[in-house]
Design brief:
Length: 568
């Protein structure tokens, strides 16, 4: 990397020489106070205290290798970042597989060998806190409140800034990671359900909005030759064990808020409750059991995997009327090409239950613990500045997409040659930016493809997906954008964040106490819910079921969870 070092030194010299007194005064606002770094950390001595980036420093980054990044050393974004921060970057590559990468890191951290200055790899909070408590990761708490060294982070809008601070504070009250926060509402409610639009049109029915209407539509699907093959082989509704495919989730949320990602726990008036013990849960089970017993919901939904469900769905003419699916992975692209124009499956809104309420499971975007500074870093300030560089939307896009104006653009003159899907266009969406060169999932050397911290929030009624160059094919078809329907159907039933369990941060002691209780209860609830739904266990056993949960330690489970919730 000798040539690169020379280039950077020349760049630094030119930078310093070209700065006027006024410019230097402006840069002086970013000077790092002597006390900004922990006393125990050795920091670099800068040549010019008015410019914290004046001296070229070397930083090593531990990072997973990727089959889609050809060479991190020569990657365009690496070179760009080096020039932006006047650093010389080198990389210590970890395995591509996440589990293997964490195993390798564990060995490195425990062996006593010199660690890279930075670890750029997502870790769960418990692991990060453990490393932090052992002194392997530096406590960055003081840096996060310092706008001189973390200007971009501290420029995040106040409502998001406070939320991010809370989310990246560990159970011991310290901050060990520079976060990655990429908010996109579509990802905050992953449990969605689709309905066969061709069947609806053939049956002359509209999309059901209530549990009663839903029941009638399923009856029609089950008793009519909807696929036109002369056989009564239609399946009104089916699910599977793949991502977002459990039909219980969609159906139960017509009766009460039920989020499997939070182990079906909820919060009411500041108190943690178990949704699976509420009277509304029993009512939901009665409704689901009715669908199963009348042949409207396939019992295979509780035993088959995602591949088996796909084989039901992706056939000519259709075999299934209603399908829960967490992503398009359940469907072939032709099945959901553009249902509003060509037929296929289209998004179905959350149902209203007997009390007129509807819900959808929500998991508000929380920052992931993305980048850490290790105990062996000698240039802590610059390492933190590097992490902070990602803390704005355009930086995030550059790191993820590549060079502005070459790989992507928000220039209206360039964007005018691109069009949205008909669904987006009809809903009045606008294009935020376009990808001139599409690299995702392909070998390239232009960006880091999302393997980095960052801050990004998607603007309302804008899109960066399902956009194509202007062509007859794009104009006539395009790809269905369920995001539009999602904004209109699912977002309106979102609950306020303060009425949700956002983050549960358990202490080491609490984790030990929960280890057995939680696993046993979670598995039991899953098992018994299916048993009630399919009729293998009668609902007359409801009180017995509640007593069994009590004996398993449910009160203690809720008590420990309440303490974690209160800390947030």
């Amino acid at each position: 990397m000798a040539d690169k070092n020379v280039q950077k030194k020349v760049f630094a010299a030119i930078l310093c020489a070209s700065m006027s007194a006024t410019a230097l005064a402006g840069c002086g606002n970013e000077a790092v106070p002597e006390s900004s770094a922990p006393a125990s950390q050795e920091t670099s001595q800068t040549v010019d205290n008015s410019d914290p980036l004046a001296e070229t420093v070397s930083l090593s980054i531990g990072m997973q290798s990727s089959p889609n990044i050809e060479d991190l050393e020569t990657n365009w974004f690496t070179t760009y970042l080096e020039k932006e921060l006047n650093v010389d970057l080198s990389f210590v590559l970890l395995p591509t597989n996440a589990t293997e990468a964490k195993t390798k890191w564990n060995l490195m951290a425990s062996s006593g060998e010199k660690l890279p200055d930075i670890l750029n790899m997502g870790l769960d909070e418990m692991s990060a806190t453990d490393y932090g408590s052992k002194g392997i990761f530096i406590d960055l708490t003081s840096y996060f409140s310092n706008p001189d060294i973390m200007p971009k982070f501290n420029n995040i809008p106040a409502e998001n800034l406070e939320y991010i601070r809370k989310c990246i504070t560990a159970s011991d009250g310290k901050m060990y990671a520079i976060p990655g926060y990429n908010r996109f509402e579509w990802n905050e409610a992953c449990y969605r359900t689709y309905i066969n639009l061709d069947w609806m049109n053939k049956a002359g029915v509209t999309a059901p909005t209530t549990t009663d209407e839903f029941y009638e539509v399923l009856k029609t699907f089950a008793t009519t030759d909807m696929n036109g093959n002369g056989k009564q082989d239609e399946i009104a509704m089916a699910g599977g064990s793949g991502w977002g495919q459990d039909p219980i989730v969609y159906l139960m949320n017509a009766f009460l808020y039920a989020n499997p990602d939070k182990a079906y726990l909820d919060v009411k008036d500041g108190k943690i409750i178990a949704s699976f013990t509420q009277p509304e849960w029993k009512n939901g089970l009665e409704y689901i059991n009715k669908l199963v017993s009348e042949g409207l919901l396939s019992p295979l939904s509780f035993t088959q995997d995602g591949t088996q469900l796909k084989s039901m769905v992706n056939v000519e003419g259709g075999m299934v009327g209603v399908v829960p699916a967490g992503s398009y992975s359940t469907f072939d692209t032709t099945i959901v090409s553009d249902p509003l124009h060509d037929g296929g499956y289209t998004l179905l809104a959350p149902l209203k239950g007997p009390e007129g309420k509807s819900y959808t499971p929500q998991n508000p975007t929380t920052p992931n613990w993305a980048m850490f500074i290790t105990k062996d870093c000698k240039n802590v300030d610059r390492a933190v500045r590097l992490g902070d560089w990602f803390m704005e939307r355009e930086s995030h896009i550059i790191a993820e997409r590549g060079e502005k104006g070459v790989d992507w653009s928000d220039d209206p003159e360039i964007m005018k040659d691109y069009i949205m899907s008909p669904t987006q266009e009809e809903a009045g969406y606008s294009i935020e930016f376009v990808e001139i060169n599409y690299y995702w999932g392909q070998p390239q050397n232009n960006n880091w493809q999302g393997t980095h911290p960052g801050y990004s929030t998607t603007l309302p009624k804008t899109t960066t997906s399902n956009i194509r160059k202007d062509s007859d094919a794009a104009k006539s078809g395009g790809i269905y954008s369920a995001g539009v329907d999602f904004d209109q159907m699912y977002v309106p039933v979102f609950r306020p964040t303060d009425e949700l369990i956002v983050k549960l941060s358990y202490t080491e002691d609490e984790t030990k106490k929960l280890a057995d209780i939680k696993t046993v209860i979670d598995e039991y609830v899953k098992e018994q819910t299916v048993a009630f739904a399919t009729g293998k266990r009668p609902l007359t056993d409801w009180d017995k079921y509640l007593a069994e949960l009590e004996n398993m330690g449910l009160p203690r489970y809720l008590e420990i969870t309440q303490a974690a919730y209160d800390r947030f």
